[in-house]
Structures are given as structure tokens and as C-alpha cells.
UniProtKB/TrEMBL annotation:
It comes from Acrocarpospora macrocephala. One of its GO terms (molecular function) is DNA-binding transcription factor activity. Residues 33-102 form the HTH merR-type domain. Residues 1-30, 144-172 are annotated as: Disordered. This is HTH merR-type domain-containing protein. PROSITE patterns: HTH_MERR_1, HTH_MERR_2. Transmembrane segments: none annotated. It comes from the Bacteria. Pfam families: MerR (PF00376), MerR-DNA-bind (PF09278). Residues 1-24 have a biased composition (Low complexity). Keywords: DNA-binding, Transcription, Transcription regulation.
Amino acid sequence: MASSTSSRGKASSPSSPKPEAGAPADEHGEEELLSIGELAKRARVSPRTIRYYEELGILPVPVRTAGGTRRYPRAYIFYVEGALLLKDMGFTLEEIGDLGRWALDRTSVASRRTQALLQGKVALLEHRIRVLNRLHDLIVEATRGGRSRKPRPAPELLRLLGEEAQSPNTEH
């Protein structure tokens, strides 16, 4: 089906994501759509990143105007921010793309590959949480001047810092 477009940059398409309840709308009740530059600016990435994320399937295909210009609902800001957060957590762009396609499908159960990916990331995150909690305790102890009866925390602190620095590279 073709998308309908007005000269004001409003577009709709049955395949485009539905606007969230409460999304800002213009005086006609239509959601305002963003240009690629506006989306990139609001998500604090480059337009090139937006296009690349589309190619990888991280972002849903946007609606286009009659002239072929991409137009994005405001909700796409959250897609980009979510992808950046997952990337910071150690997910590769390929993994984020797999998760994005699965999440956008909404009709299927996660594939075995996606389930294994998520289970591996859960194990990695649980490990990092344990390391960071222990690191927190050691730093708190060190700030108290090491007045406990336990051995000095510095060697264990350094070991944990090294372990945490290596944990994102660990594959499960």
C-alpha cells in the first residue's frame, strides 16, 4: 500500500509503527514526523548512523514522502537510544539487529539463536553485577581507611577492576 503524504511532512502507512498514546500531534491530530536530521540530532547520533541502523534492521523502515524523504515518528528516538544502550552493554550491532527484528515482528517466539544470545547476555550481566557489587563494597571499605580486621582491600580491588575490564570480551 502507498503511504499518504501532505506537503507538511505528515505521512501514514499501515506498516509504520503506530504512534504512542500521548505522542505530540499537530492541530489535525496527526503525529508530527521527524526528518532524518531531526531524529539524529534528538538521538545524539549522525544521520549516517540512522541509515545504518535501518540497514541492520535495528530500526523499522520509516515512511517516506512522495519525494522519497524519510519521515520518522518520535518513538524512533527510543529505538536509537535503546540500541545505543544495548551497544554499551556489550551487544554487537548484529546482535542488536537480531533483537530488533524479533522485537518488531511481535508475532513470533524468539528463535533459538536469539534465546541463546539473550541467555548468554543475562549470564554476562549477572557476572558483571556480582563483580560491581563486590567492587562497590571494596571501595566503600577502602574509603573508611581500611580499619577493618579483614586483609587490606587494595589487592582484591585491583583484581576485580581487571576482571571487570575483561568481562565485556567474555563470550558465553
